Amino acid sequence: MGSDPHALLALVAGAAERLAATGRDAAVTADVLPSLVRALAARGAVLALGSADGDLRVVATEPPGAPPPLDGTLVRAARDGVAQWPGGTGPGRAAVPLLREGEVVGALGLSWDGPHPADGPERHALGALAALVAAVAPAPSPLGRGLRHHAHPAPAGVGVACAARPGGARCAVSAPGAHGDAFATLLDSPLGLGSAPLDAVRGVLALARRRSTPPALVGKAVAELAPDLDAEVFGAHVEACPDSAWLAVAPLDHAVVVATTPGGEGDPRPPAADRLAGERLLLARAEPVAVAAAAIDPGADAGTAQAVHDVLAGCLARPLRPAEAQPEPPAGAPAPAAGAPDPAADLALDLAHDLERALAAAGLDAPVRGLLVVVASGRPDLRRRGRTLPSSPVAARLGRQFVAAALPADAPPGVRDEVSLAAAELLSNAVRHAHEQVEVVVEDEPDGLLLSVTDDDERVPEPAARAGDGWAETGRGLAVLAALVDEHGTTPRPGGGKEVWARVRWRRRTAGAARA
User: Fold this and answer.
1) Where is this region: Disordered (predicted)?
2) Between helices 215-225 and 195-210, what is the axis angle to 10°?
3) Which ranges of 229-342 does DSSP label H, i.e. alpha helix?
């Protein structure tokens, strides 16, 4: 029938008559959607309405039972309240928002097998049908167009906040794991995350929490899982350790922007077929540190993604505003109530608001489907920092990265080189022999620092008698370790395993040289 104005007018008039006669949304499924598909020679149609939780849900499709085509076109129409029309090439897709008393309550979408340049009469007809459907649809929940902010429960010293659009990205936050760490993940998909993909990804995250899996490996696992879910899944995964005051973040896929406060080690690159996700690690010292991740519309170009990154990085480059210190309570006053606001939680929520305002000011709020902010409070008094990693080859690289970040700020370059080489020796041996996990610890001491690596293998390293024995597999072994550090040794652990440690007394050396 194409764009014959008379035929389109008859379509709208007939739909209005049937909807008025029934006064219920069943007529949409039974008659209006099929008539629309036939009249415009479309492949299919879909009706999506706002649900009680403010998300977007498919309620009717034509043909009936077809896979719900909740694609980016439909989501953008509902999110932005602006009709989306087909382009000049590729399969045609159109979506019109459903408006009731000025509020977006859903969207009506059409798809074609090939290009379909919708002309003026077709656009007017679809707009009129959308108005009719919105009038008789069952009282849906309005879909807000802005980002909704939410602060998540987290351990003391860690703040987690998110901001997401209805039908956009979602934030999954775990309870602290066996080692007290917390995990926060921003999840999104160009098709909208249904319950099945989200549950599958959450299963991966639960396994990661139990095994202390670093974000670099989580990103790779989710990227490999996505094809089996028939839906691309992207976002970012953040691990936070309140006891050691550090954050680690890695992307899950490409359609996400990651920025952090200054400093840190590593490059947050998305995973690829031949590489793990790049991980960035930050340690809180006197000042808090923060990670921000933004899921952007998959249709956004590289320039938009870079502009969003620049806005996030600009906000995080400014000093974070910690909550004002509260005065000491008078003697005999009752203790603060459990669950009192954590400064890190307030800081995370404030930062999420700041990021949203900065994106809006730059005209970049539309392509952002969700934000995740994680903050670790400053810990100027913390002298001992540790990280637990799985016994896989990536642990050696991430362990060295952790040691480099955890070194005292006043350690000179030469000492940093010594400790880096010593960490490589300790970690390579531990990863090679450990059964499940490796823990690396850096402790700031008056004379210098203590570096230790603990694993669950009880064999004690000894000077190798020939190549191929124990530590000689690295080609350097204990002899090289002895040349790098002032003291080293091995301590058996009561529950099994061992701790191999090395002490570098660089402050004592520096003081002695100054007196000489």
Assistant:
1) 322-341
2) 150
3) 302-317
